[in-house]
Structure formats: structure tokens, C-alpha cells
Amino acid sequence: MKITNLAIVFVIIVIPFILISNLKLWDMKAVSIKTLEINKLLDAACEDAASALIGRGEDGRITINKEQAVEAFFNSLYINFDVLDNSMLKRKIQGYVPVIAVIDYDGYYIFSQEIYTGALGFSEIKHVWKPKKMFSYSEGTYVYSFTLDDYLTVYDVTDPDNRAYEGAYEDIRLLHAGSIIDTSESFDRVRRSTIVESIKDDINYYINLHNRIALKYGITYHFAPPLIQDEDWYRTIDDVGVIAFFQGIPIGTGGDVFNSFAVGGGRLVKHEGYYVESEATSLIQYYHRTGCVDLPYNNGRVDKDKVDIYGSRKECAEKGYYPCPKCNP
């Protein structure tokens, strides 16, 4: 066989492999680009949700608007995926979101879909808020309720008077020597672990549960909890905010699907809060830190019905309140 013929045969054999290899490479690049694009959209949606999460009531108090946060999250996705005017595609987008967690100061809410039987006897899908779950940990007869900072509540289940003690860690620690809060290191370790493990367990449960619901949307992707590093989990408990998972949407032509999550922080550093007696009659009103002896208490706890809570000293000053000379907030 002539060399030219061999060359032709070689080209005929090799070119398809080169083309296939290039197609795979192009698809990989397309998948990478699409993944980055969706990650940006998901991050933006979570930031929009976090911005809508923090509000203020008529009295100026900080409030958590979880419903508005979720509405802002989905509206952001609808707009960026260009499906705002298409109800069918909007429902499809919802099917790719197995669970959303809203992190509050002392607990969290889970927002996911459930299948229920409608009035006509047909199966329907509905978004449902699960009851708020507190950041609680039990050891022996003691129950510890944690928050995103060093504020906590402790009570003994065997106490016939059902008294509870709440305040900043340094104040409560003195009352419970030898317990898990005996050192700041132990307190912070147990607090973080309690919060993260509780949120993680619920998120994993509802992601797995979503597989049955996804089939109703025609989504055959098997939803499973993504691998998330510990440092990413701990990042979610630095502040109130929103964690959203987006999984199963096809990207590329090789059967690849998007599977990721995003965190939106409310940018609200809620430390221990500052208290002002709402029924005080003196001309000069003071704001106090937790544990101050001048605050009204009920069974060892600050009586929340008799105080107003503010998030910063600046807020208190703007309202005309002065720092308490006893607790020096």
C-alpha cells in the first residue's frame, strides 16, 4: 500500500477520535462556565433573601421575615433564569430546590415541599414551614439553649420551680462550674457542634425526602446531600441568614447536573442585645447588658414583656437612652 493511501487511512481513523476528544473538551468547558454562572445566580438569590430577611417592626425592633426572604430568593431565580412569566417553568425551578434553611439568632426554620392530598383527592405539592427548632443540647439533667453568640439559657429539668438562667456566657458560667460550659473553649465547641449538627441532620433528611417530590416535576436526578467541609458549615452560623440548596438542573450535553448550595448572611451582629425597660418612668432611661441587676426578671430570666431589645449601642443612643452605670454595656 502506498504511503499516501496509508496517510488517508490514518486520517480517516484518527480524525473522529480527535473530534470526539475536542467535543468532550468543549463540553467540559461549557459545563464549567455554566456551573460558574449558576453559582453566581444562586449566590445572588441568597444575598437577596438575606437582605429581605432582616426587618424592623413599628416599635423599631429587629424582626426576622422568613417568608419575605424565601419570596425574594425565588423571585431572584425566576428573573435570572428568565421564567418570571412562565408558571410551569417557575414550578420546575422550585423542584430543583430541595430545602432552604433560615438561620435565626436562637434556632432555625426549614422550608421544603410536601405531598398532600387535595380537596379533590389528587396529590398536590405544597411548600411548608417546619416548626422552629432551637439550638438545644442536653447533658444529665441540664438543658442548654444556645444562640449565635455567647448568650445562652440553662435550666434543670428536675427543678420543681422550673427556673431558668439566661445571660452572657461569663455570667452563667459562674453558676454552673464543672459543666460543659466550665471553660470558654468547651462552651464554644459544644455550642458550634450543637448548632451545626442539628442543621446538618435536618437538611440531609429533607434533601433525601425530596426525591419522591422531584418525580412529580419530572426530575429523575437522585437528590443527595452534597459534601460540605466543616469550615463551610461553621461559616453558616456566624450570623443570621439563609442556606439554600440547588440540585439536579442539567448542564452540558454529557448528562452533567448542577449540585451546589449558597449562604446569604443577614449582616446582623446580634451579640447579646441591649435592654431598656419599657415601663420605666424616670426622666433618664438606661440601656443594660444581659445580667444587669436593674433589669426585671421572672423565674431567673429577663422578663421580655417588660423590656425593649436593641441590637447596638448606636440604636440605644439614637433613642435617647444612656448606658447603665452599673453594668457598663
UniProtKB/TrEMBL annotation:
Source species, domain of life: Bacteria
Q: What organism is this sequence from? A: Anaerobacterium chartisolvens
Q: What is this protein called?
A: Uncharacterized protein
Q: Which UniProt keywords apply?
A: Membrane, Transmembrane, Transmembrane helix
Organismal lineage:
Bacteria, Bacillati, Bacillota, Clostridia, Eubacteriales
TM spans (from-to): 6-26
